[in-house]
Amino acid sequence: MTFSSKLIEKAVEAFATLPGIGRKTALRLVLHLLKQEKAVTEQFSTALLNMRDGIRECQTCHNLADAEICHICADTRRDRTLVCVVESIRDLMAIEDTGQYRGLYHLLGGIISPIEGIGPSDLNIESLLARIQEGEIREVIMAISPTIEGETTVYYLAKKLQDLDVTLSAIARGVSFGGDLEYADELTLGRSIVARIPYNR
Amino acid sequence: MTFSSKLIEKAVEAFATLPGIGRKTALRLVLHLLKQEKAVTEQFSTALLNMRDGIRECQTCHNLADAEICHICADTRRDRTLVCVVESIRDLMAIEDTGQYRGLYHLLGGIISPIEGIGPSDLNIESLLARIQEGEIREVIMAISPTIEGETTVYYLAKKLQDLDVTLSAIARGVSFGGDLEYADELTLGRSIVARIPYNR
C-alpha cells in the first residue's frame, strides 16, 4: 500500500495495531475521520486518552472502574453474600446483561493456561481468599468458560476453597435453550444426560 | 451492554461511530488498549490528531498530502503530459500499487450520483479543465469504476473535454486476468465480446 502522506500512513499504522484491523480497514477508518469535522477526531482521541488515564481497577473485585471501588461493589442493594468468580470483564458484562444476577463479582484476570504461561499466581486468587475470610460471603459461584483451561481453573479454585466456610457452585452446563438436540455437540449432550436433573412438575 | 465505567463506555461509543465497528468490536479494541502501556494509547491518539491537523489537499490534483503539493505532483520524474482521473484517493492508491502508471492524477472527489445528490458542480471538474488549458497535458485517462454512476460521470467528462486539445482514454474493461469465463458476469462477458480487440501475435 503506497501512501501519499506520511501523516495518513502513521494513522493507518496506528489503527492497524488494533486486533482484527488490517491495513485496508485501517485506511477506511482514517478516510472516514478525514471526511468528518476536525472536532470528531479530537473527541475520539480525548475519549481514548481520558479512558486510559482515568481507568482504575476496583480494589475489591478487580473490575475496571472509574473510582477506587466499582459501581457493583459500591451498590448496597446487591447481595453481598454471593460472589461470582469470572475470568474477565467481558464475562462479567455478559452476566450483567442477563439481568439475572444481583450478587457481587470477583475477576480472576485470566484462567490457568500452561501453554500461555499463566499460572495460579498470575490470577487474583489470593484476594478472593482474603475476601472470603472476611466472613460475609456465603456462596462462591464459579462462572468460568467450560473449556479445558476453565475446568482446570475451577478445579484449582475448588481445592483452594475447600476448607473455607462457603458453599461452592458452578454455572449450569448442558444443551442451550432453544437449541436443537440434533445439533448439540456430542460432549455437551453426553454430559447433559449423565448429569441429568430432577424434573420439577 | 452494561458498562462498569463511564470512561470505558465513552471510549467504546467513540470507536463504535467508525464505519463497520459495532459495540462488541469497539469493546474488544478498548480492552486491548487497556491491556497495553499507557504510551500506546497516547501514540495512537497523537497519530490521529497529527493526521487530522496536518493533512492538506494538493492544490493541483486534490490528492491528500502533507504539503501544498502532493508528492506525486511534485515528482519531476513523472510524465506530466498524462493525467489519470480517479474518483478518490483509494482508487489512486490502487493504481499506484500496480506500479504500472507514471503520470499524474486528478481526484474528482466523488462521482455523479443523483440519488446521493452529487452533481457535476460538487466534483473537481473545473480545476481539471483549468489544468488541461495550461497546455502541458496531452492525454486524460478516465479510471472511474464501471458502474452506472461511473459511466455517467465518464460521459459527462467526455462531453466537457471534447473541444479541448487532449486525447481521451478510459481504462480497459473486460474479463479479469486469471478469471474463469464461466464465472464472469453476463454484462462483462457480453461487452468483452462486442468490444473485442485485435490479437497481437
Structure description:
The structure is a homodimer of 201-residue chains. With 201 residues, chain A is of the alpha/beta class. Chain A has two domains: 6-54, RecR Domain 1 (Helicase, Ruva Protein, domain 3); 64-198, Dna Topoisomerase Vi A Subunit, Chain: A, domain 2 (3-Layer(aba) Sandwich). Chain A has helices spanning 6-16, 23-35, 38-54, 71-74, 89-98, 126-133, 148-161, 186-194, and strands spanning 56-57, 64-65, 79-86, 103-107, 139-142, 167-170. In chain A, 43% of the residues lie in helices and 12% in strands. The mean pLDDT of chain A is 90. In chain A, helix 1 (6-16) packs across helix 2. Chain A is globular. In chain A, helix 5 links the parallel strand 3 (79-86) and strand 4 (103-107).
Describe this protein with a few key phrases.
homodimer, 201 residues, alpha/beta, Helicase, Ruva Protein, domain 3, Dna Topoisomerase Vi A Subunit, Chain: A, domain 2, 2 domains, 4-stranded parallel sheet, two-stranded antiparallel ribbon
Concise account of the structure shown:
The structure is a homodimer of 201-residue chains. The first copy, chain A, has helices at residues 6-16, 23-35, 38-54, 71-74, 89-98, 126-133, 148-161, 186-194, and strands at 56-57, 64-65, 79-86, 103-107, 139-142, 167-170. The first copy, chain A, is α/β, with parallel strands linked by helices and 201 residues long.
